[in-house]
Each structure stands twice: as C-alpha cells, then as structure tokens.
Amino acid sequence: MKDGTPDIDPVESQEWQEAIEDVIARDGADRAHYLLDKAVQQARAAGATLPFSATTPYQNTIPADDRLEIPGDSEMEWRI
C-alpha cells in the first residue's frame, strides 16, 4: 500500500476493487462515488481514522481574464 500499511487480505482487497469497477460499469461513477462516501462516513462513525480530503465540489466560474488583480505587493507578502 502507498502509506506502508501491509495488505493483510489481498483477496478481499481485490474483491472490493472489482466491486467498485462493477458499480462504475453498471451504474456510473456518480453511484460509485456515493457508495464510497457512505463507506467513509460509516468507517469514521465506527472510529476509523481516515486521511483528510480537502476535495470540494467548488468550481471557479470566473474566467482567468476576468479576475481582478489583488491589491498589495504579492512578492513581499509571499516572503512574509
């Protein structure tokens, strides 16, 4: 595994991966996302410590050319 935790049951891990692939193929990625979110909620409710994810549904709808320039000295602020 990426974080160094050993996979104590590779067969079960493969079954979970195949199940998610099947959901995506049958019902789409949105359904798989829903199921994974529910699984994460249940794991956290049961006391599992999971990595924080800062992913949000936010999408900037302002084109780069229309963004206002922020006042101040950005180089100086970056150094601070």
TrEMBL record:
Protein name: Pyruvate dehydrogenase E1 component middle domain-containing protein
Species of the source: marine sediment metagenome
